[in-house]
Amino acid sequence: MLVYQDITSFPLVAEDGTVAYVITVFITKRIYQLRLDIITAKEYIDTHWMEDFDLDKISNHAGLSRQHLTRLFKRFIGITPYGYYQKIKLEKIREALEDLTLNISEAFNSCGADYSGGFAEDFKRKMGMTPSQYRKTLQSDVCDNKIQSG
């Protein structure tokens, strides 16, 4: 947190035009710059999730060093910048897998990820099932809904 103090003075003029008193007001402003920097980094990740993760680009955009950004991100958001990026990416992949017109590889590609890459393992670890198992649960839900409505 940065603290700035503004000092404003203005004269009180007597009837004869002389300065009778000078009133000074001290205004303290608290600027939460570190939080603003983290919000800037978070917004950058939110808009660039399709790209490969690049901590250098994110830290340059926020105006912080890589180490400082990582520490502050963990402190204010609760996870590392990569963890936040991964969370967004996996959510987008999950949404893409819900489009049953795409095969699994196409769903991953539509999110800028390779099905044979690390995100398939991350998906399994976070969701508790493989992408194909997740897809099967979606397909069985669609079949169950058709049977119930029919």
What does this structure look like?
It is a single chain. With 150 residues, the protein is an alpha+beta fold. The chain contains seven helices and two strands; from the N terminus they run E-E-H-H-H-H-H-H-H. Strands 1-2 form a two-stranded antiparallel sheet.
Strand order of the largest sheet: 1-2
Query: Which oligomeric state applies?
Result: single chain
What characteristic shape results from the CA principal axes?
rod-shaped
Average pLDDT, to the nearest integer?
88
Task: Enumerate the spans where pLDDT stays under 50 for 5 or more consecutive residues.
Answer: none
Q: Helical percent range? A: 55-70%
What percentage of amino acids are in beta strands?
15-25%
> Distance N terminus to C terminus?
61 Å
Rounded to an integer in angstroms, the radius of gyration calculated over CA atoms is 27 Å
- Which H/E pattern describes the elements? EEHHHHHHH
What structural class results from the helix and strand content? alpha+beta
Tally the helices: 7
| Number of E strands | 2
Report the biggest beta sheet as strand number plus sense, adding barrel if it closes. Answer: 2 strands, antiparallel
Secondary structure elements and pairings:
Elements (H helix, E strand, L loop, with lengths): L1 E12 L5 E13 L1 H15 L7 H8 L3 H12 L3 H17 L6 H6 L8 H10 L3 H19 L1
Antiparallel strand pairs: 1-2
